[in-house]
Amino acid sequence: MKEDGAMDFIRARGEEQKKIRIQQIVDAAAMLYEEVGYDKVTFSQIGRKLSFSRLNLYNYYHCKEDIFLTLLLQDRGKMVEDARRTFSGAVTDRDAFCHAWASLMLRHQRMLSLFSITNTVILRDASSEMHRRFRSEMSQTTDKLISLVQELFPAFTPEQALLFLECESSYALTLYPASLEYKNSQHIEIFPDAGRGTRNFVSLYVPFLKVLLKGLEK
């Protein structure tokens, strides 16, 4: 008998079926992440979600970290596709662009959340094979974003476009875990009367983007 919320899972017998099973595993991990958060998700829980034994799960992944890196790569790919749909042509209104880019980031909050712990938590116990794949595919998606940024800012060199992406993402990944959006999503108590309080993501991210662009456009 399957536990509540368990997903149907049958061992794959071909490459196409294997891809389907891998996606089911990633989807199960994503569901558990939303339910209990990254720290509380275990390899065994993912297997139970699929009514699949831990041993058989090893046929597809070595550890939960590899599963979450796959999920993160998928989220990153969706963000790049979203960016392509959202932006086209040279930017004529910098303020509007900055707000639109901030909105883009907030449409992919799971990506921001997982990215913020990738180097300090997830990669620490990931397999070398998956780590290498992650770096390689991340580089490919970054190349796509570099191309997009150069379309938006034609005067930018590839190096300037990359610098924009590195700076904006570094700030976003620092800012997001301390934002109202993240704390509300994780049900973390907020104390507005203690210290300077917690602010929303856009109010801090947009001014940073404006300063960054001004510096790069000199």
Outline:
This protein is mainly α and about 220 residues long. The protein has helices at about 15-35, 45-50, 55, 65-85, 95-105, 110-115, 120-125, 130-150, 160-175, 180-185, 200-215. The radius of gyration is 20 Å and the shape is globular.
Radius of gyration: 20 Å
Instruction: Report the total helices.
Output: 11
Order of H and E elements? HHHHHHHHHHH
Overall pLDDT, averaged? 92
Distance from N terminus to C terminus (CA atoms, Å) equals 65 Å
Structural class: mainly alpha
Please give the number of β-strands.
0
- Helical percent range? 55-70%
Give an account of the 3D structure:
Helices cover 68% and strands 0% of the residues. It is mostly helical and 218 residues long. Helix 1 crosses helix 4, helix 4 packs across helix 7 and helix 9 (158-175) runs antiparallel to helix 11. It is globular and about 55 Å long. The termini are far apart.
